[in-house]
Amino acid sequence: xxxxxxxxxxxxxxxxxxxxxxxxxxxxxxxxxxxxxxxxxxxxxxxxxxxxxxxxxxxxxxxxxxxxxxxxxxxxxxxxxxxxxxxxxxxxxxxxxxxxxxxxxxxxxxxxxxxxxxxxxxxxxxxxxxxxxxxxxxxxxxxxxxxxxxxxxx
Length: 154
Description:
The protein folds into two domains: 29-83; 102-154. By secondary structure, it is mostly helical. The protein is built from five helices and two strands; from the N terminus they run H-H-H-E-E-H-H. 34% of the residues lie in helices and 5% in strands. It has helices at residues 14-20, 45-54, 62-83, 121-126, 128-135; strands at 105-108, 114-117. 1% of the residues are buried. The longest helix is centred in the middle third of the chain and has 22 residues, at 62-83. GO terms for molecular function: DNA binding. Residues 1-25 are annotated as: Disordered. This is DNA-binding helix-turn-helix protein. It comes from Bifidobacterium saguini DSM 23967. Keywords: DNA-binding.
């Protein structure tokens, strides 16, 4: 039988936790940078919904204010990450190679049509049987279908 383990649980009021969130930063936070975005002019809930759903600014300059606030926090968070010993990883963009104008070879699909295969001639010749199977080729469905393409079992 399981024996209960005695422990002490400390409860921290979530409202108090919000106040302590900024204390975790060791880098300076610019003066006037609030934790929540506060627009320079009053906005209604309907205006906020229109902004979020229709991209309609509540007043001219709202988008720029929000953009500047978000960027200021991004700079603070990146500085904090660097201070904590982390680094910003920026993934290399995927290099898309242009399609060559000539095909390295071709394979026959299940209908007997030639399908061009682009790429390196050496790779194509080395793996041509794989390409034949991948694109169809003779006998790929031979065990399951008759010459008319009908399922033999039915």
